[in-house]
Task: structure prediction
Amino acid sequence: MSCILVVMLCACSGADQEVSTVNFETLSVRPIEGQRSYDRILDEASLRKQFELPATPGEILIAPAGVFADTMGYIYVADEWDYRIHRFDSFGNYVTSFGEGHGTGPGEIMGILNFGAMGDSMVYVFEYMSKEVSYFDLEGSFLWSERLEGSMREYPDQYVFTQKGRVYSKFSLQENIDEELFESRLGDDVVKFGRIYGESPYFSSTVAGNLVTFNEQMIYVSQWYPLFIQYGPDGSTKYARATMDYVSTEEPNVIETQRGWHIDGPFLLEDFPTVYRGQLLIHSTLAQTIDIYDAATGEYQHSIKLPENGFTHALNDRVYQVGDSTVSVWAIEKSSLRPELSASPE
Result:
């Protein structure tokens, strides 16, 4: 069985460029608009290492995983070994930690799936083992936890907040079940959307991808297809756009074996996308670039070329590299396309 990728190129008159329409067997999204050009505009910015986390003597990271930076410049690092989120200031100095370690008691965490900040007042941690969301104030004190009940299904695999408190969830779907992939929830206002369909059994991992919020909207970025989609709080599709990997990748195949299903195709998404100053940043595994799009329209803007050594990215005009026990923080400088990104000397 394979997931069908149908491409229709329509020549437009005048200044308009060719527009691609991509149809997927597993996603009820039509049409998907292409980019004006698939030639990357490379910003040959250089990277200067500023410091490593933790910069405070005596503080350690055992197994750093995800990195997040809030709008005030604070850096958050999830440590998978001690089941905590560590907070650092913009210079790398340790500030506080969220979570009381491994366990099921108040403030304890069974496993970190994703985390983030709600405005400038709280930090949330979504736990994949207990299916709970724990909330902490910015000083690290535990506030309360919320069992994920009342959702359309019990076990979402992603859970993100907007600044106004709306929750967007993505769910792991089962084969042969026609279900919505996402949920939007604010109090009693619950909307299910993103229906899956197909004439033959599909492999649920084909719809794997990551979520990021933009204002009160949600953007879904696919891991297997060159695709990202913005949805409104009511589940309506604001746009669906092809990524810059569209012309350099082939349709993935879903192969059935004696041990089950697996996907034969390139893995396109390196890490979680981010939105910063109205721009959507997607790390392309194939090109080893951070591709930057207008978050409001999905229009491609330019790319930053990265060394092929495991760099990842977060917010605040910095690039973060997650190592075995440290996180290296690099400044972007000498940006030819965006001089305002050039880091000032320390």
